[in-house]
Design a protein that fits this description.
Endonuclease Iii, domain 2, Endonuclease III, domain 1, 14 helices, 242 residues, mainly alpha
């Protein structure tokens, strides 16, 4: 099977399992999505969704956040990983948005990635989910699964992004990156994975890798898989770190 044939079969399975993937981070506008994505680094989406309602009630816009100090933001996000540095970045980013973009989130990768605490993956999520621009954010799930499914050599996130963009239609990128994340959470976790029980790894993973993972595997997360496979289920609520 060629890489292109493998990608087509993967896409068909993902479309069947997760036909309408929901955006996992709760937000009201582009600024709130940007904040939520910054918070999601080394933190579960579920945890982010727990802390942002109170944070946004206090400062739900760039103008409001820019008036706060990092130590005033920190109590709202303390349960998120890397909270002190995130608090500083949220304030700095908000002040940059007010000073340079009239308080609005810019719609270009270059401008987004110039903001404090905003890297390419964060910018890609905002471009895709807030503005509908074709992008393929690569998180730990996608990086891992691209290697398992032999869609990329997966040596780094840049390589994975390039390979997946070449394999899948541009108009599918925004939904597809969410479908892969949801599939990974439900069927293809980092630990306790049994390749033979995975709807994709069972045929897409190399024999050598399957043997290696099977030696260290355990029972597959059957309850999660059954739960998340139901139409309309949002796996992000269970949450895994990025």
């Amino acid at each position: 099977m060629t890489r292109e044939e493998r990608a087509a079969r993967v896409l068909a399975i993902l479309e069947e399992r997760f036909p309408a993937p929901a955006i996992p981070l709760d937000h009201g506008d582009a600024f709130q999505l940007l904040v939520a994505v910054i918070l999601s680094a080394q933190c579960t989406d579920a945890r982010v969704n727990q802390v942002t309602p109170a944070l946004f009630a206090r400062a739900g816009s760039a103008a409001a956040m820019a008036k706060l100090r990092a130590d005033q933001v920190l109590p709202f996000i303390r349960s998120c990983g890397l909270a002190p540095s995130k608090a500083k970045n949220l304030v700095a980013t908000s002040r940059a948005l007010v000073a340079e973009h009239a308080g609005e989130v810019p719609r270009t990768f270059e401008a987004l990635e110039a903001l404090p605490g905003v890297g390419h993956k964060t910018a890609s999520v905002v471009m895709a989910q807030a503005f509908g621009e074709p992008a393929f954010p690569v998180d730990t799930h996608i990086h891992r699964l691209a290697g398992r499914w032999q869609l990329s050599r997966a040596r780094n996130v840049d390589e994975v992004e390039r390979d997946l963009k070449a394999l899948f239609p541009r108009e599918r990128w925004n939904a597809l990156h969410l479908q892969i994340i949801y599939f990974g959470r439900a069927f293809c976790p980092a630990r306790g994975h049994v390749p033979a029980a995975c709807p994709i790894c069972a045929w897409a993973m190399s024999a050598a890798r399957a043997v290696a993972e099977a030696k260290h595997g355990s029972k597959p997360p059957a309850k999660k898989a059954k739960k998340y496979a139901r139409a309309g289920t949002n796996p992000a609520r269970a949450g895994t770190s990025r």
